[in-house]
Amino acid sequence: MRTIELWDKSVILIDQTKLPQKLRFIRCENAEEVARAIERMQVRGAPVLAAAAAMALAVTALRSRARKKGQLLRELRRAAELVRRTRPTAVNLSVGLKRALEAAQGAPDVERASEAVVKEARRIAEEDVKVNKKMGENGAKLLRNGDVVLTHCNAGALATVDYGTALGVVRSAWRKGKRIKVIATETRPLLQGARLTAWELKRDGIPTTVVVDSAVGHLMARGEVTKVLVGADRIAANGDAANKIGTYTIAVLAKEHRVPFYVVAPTSSVDLDTPTGKTISIEYRAPREVEFIQGKRILPKGVKVLNPAFDVTPARLITSIVTERGVVKPDKLKSLFKS
Ligand code: MRU
Questions:
Q1: Which residues contact 204 (CB under 8 A, 6 or more apart)?
Q2: Is the shortest distance between the CB of 44 and ligand 1 below 6 Å?
Q3: Alpha helices for the chain (secondary structure H)
Q4: CB-based contacts of 30: which residues, under 8 Å, 6+ apart?
Q5: What is the pLDDT of residue 338?
Q6: I want to staple 58 with a disulfide (CB 3.0 to 4.6 A). Which of 15, 121, 162, 335 is the partner?
Q7: Catalytic option among 128, 147, 233, 311
Q8: Of 195, 317, 307, 194, nearest to 249 (Cα)?
Q9: In this structure, which residue's CA is closest to atom 2 in ligand 1?
């Protein structure tokens, strides 16, 4: 079962807002519907957003009536702008759009431009799964029998096309027979840890305990966490990494308690055009995500809310970055891009 698929001129995706109560799929027939699904967090997580973005352009091409390549390109650019506006922090979304648009531009005529977009969207999805398995292999070497791995948000199969980044490492280690346990933070406000990470790991039979976000310091002080593994939405050239709000707090605590802190992300999440984390655009989401939990109001009406969705962990707090090309110290990140 994949998180997202291109099927019958549509994008089919798991509706992550319904998990863990229901495993439901939704069908998006055009780029507007894909953009809406991204905004509503029905599909979320940086790597899968690359596939979702490219697939939004693929369905645009598959349903287009354009007879000239120029007209198709205009339709694709319009669709790309719609999708681009949905979420600013994950670099993967714009990488997916760029790859699909460039595939169309490079084709000689309208038919082949349309085929090229579809092919590129499928290629992005296939690559994602392969890259995750490779990161899993690379990262599994860092884990030992008895490790208790703390993870934040959901960097699993649901945040990717399949297998996951941080949870891909957990899966690979588990499949190699390493006896590890996972602590998943709840991850307020949208509870990706409690709802999605716990759901995924339970299905795989990997021992998992959910804690509230504010329990991390207490557990680390008692020596109950041996490693931290998180994903990333964008890694700047100097190794600063943006990830779900709360990641920075965990990194500071990990440093204080000498717990190794690993970021697991594909090289496509590295944005060499962004020199440091200071210029990463941080998404602020609607106050209602904090005001309500699963439809129930928990704040008094009229109280102000701030809802930053991501924060930046400075490179100095990161032990290593695990990628499909190898495991590096943050200050050696650029060495992965030298041919
Ligand atoms: O707001 P979300 O749920 O899209 O945030 C997701 C995260 O922060 C993940 O940790 C990140 O995208 C890496 S997923 C492999």
A1: 171, 174
A2: yes
A3: 31-39, 46-63, 69-84, 91-105, 110-140, 166-175, 198-204, 216-221, 247-256, 288-291
A4: 56, 59, 60, 63, 79
A5: 87
A6: 121
A7: 233
A8: 317
A9: 45
Contact call for residues 147 and 140 (beta carbons, < 8 A):
no
CB distance 277 to ligand 1 below 6 Å: no
Cα–Cα distance, 138 to 258 (Å, whole number): 22
Give all domains of the chain, ordered by start, each with its CATH number: 4-133 (1.20.120.420), 138-337 (3.40.50.10470)
Q: Distance, CA 109 to ligand 1 centroid (Å)?
A: 37
Extract the residue ranges of the chain whose pLDDT is less than 50: none
Cβ proximity of 64 and 78 under 8 Å: no
The alpha-carbon radius of gyration of the chain (Å, integer) is 20
Tokens of 276: 């440091």
How many residues are there in the chain?
339
Encoding tokens for residue 52?
A: 């979702």
- 243 token code pair: 């990830």
Judge if the beta carbon of residue 86 lies within 6 A of ligand 1.
no
Q: Which of 44, 170, 213, 248 to mutate to test the pocket of ligand 1 (most atoms within 8 A of CB)?
A: 44
For ligand 1, whether the C-beta of 46 sits within 6 Å is yes
Instruction: For the chain, count helices (H), then strands (E).
Output: 10, 16
SS (H, E, C) 299-331: CCCCCCCCCECEEEECHHHCCEEEECCEEECHH
